Amino acid sequence: xxxxxxxxxxxxxxxxxxxxxxxxxxxxxxxxxxxxxxxxxxxxxxxxxxxxxxxxxxxxxxxxxxxxxxxxxxxxxxxxxxxxxxxxxxxxxxxxxxxxxxxxxxxxxxxxxxxxxxxxxxxxxxxxxxxxxxxxxxxxxxxxxxxxxxxxxxxxxxxxxxxxxxxxxxxxxxxxxxxxxxxxxxxxxxxxxxxxxxxxxxxxxxxxxxxxxxxxxxxxxxxxxxxxxxxxxxxxxxxxxxxxxxxxxxxxxxxxxxxxxxxxxxxxxxxxxxxxxxxxxxxxxxxxxxxxxxxxxxxxxxxxxxxxxxxxxxxxxxxxxxxxxxxxxxxxxx
Length: 334
Hints:
By secondary structure, the protein is α/β, with parallel strands linked by helices. Helices cover 44% and strands 8% of the residues.
């Protein structure tokens, strides 16, 4: 019997079938535009094209992007040359105003050059999937929550508890709700609450880090890696197995995974073509080079507890605790 996916592929063009059948296996190259088109033709969500492991960008996609970037720079330079050579007033106040306008027209040139340099290479490779945490590390998945309803919270907790390899799942309930404790008990997840609810999500996570430190001092095994999931982010089964391998490198403090949203009617349904897709599938891979590193985006991420403790935990000085914490980690050389 064919699965639903297979039945949809059976009626799709050969190109769609060839790309879609790659599934989660790691391809030699990733041609995101072609894969998204193929999956959409097959009646599947565009973000499903990104379920496989990261891989180098396909030559076709790479050269189209590079030629497009260079063409935009050349076109703007040519326009500015024409603008200055043939349209400027000869003298007086009009000329000063014209130069002001030209200056504003030239500002995008700097952005184009910087983006072209930054995105010149977005090749990205991942470690092999793991069946156990590297070097015997202990992992805890943290799910901060406050007042979200059961239909939002339950799928995330259930999926987090089912993740492999072995780990602990901590639900950080800042709402102190009895029904959350009951639900977590049914999933074998641990509920953590606190008496003082300061600094929102950052304070909630710092309380969990303090609890880990206290339990470690009391003789419990130390937790080495925390994975963070917002309570409305349901992890794929490979969330940990595909990311923990990075931590075999002791210099790595942060691994940030992509995010895709499936709620109907959102401006960025497929997670690929909109702002969200651009950020996670283009801008973030471009930072996967030595000396750059990703931004912590607050969720679908893993952090080394040792590194977090060195920067004093999750930053509470600003409301953008993820970005602020990233900068602190970079300053310490992580």
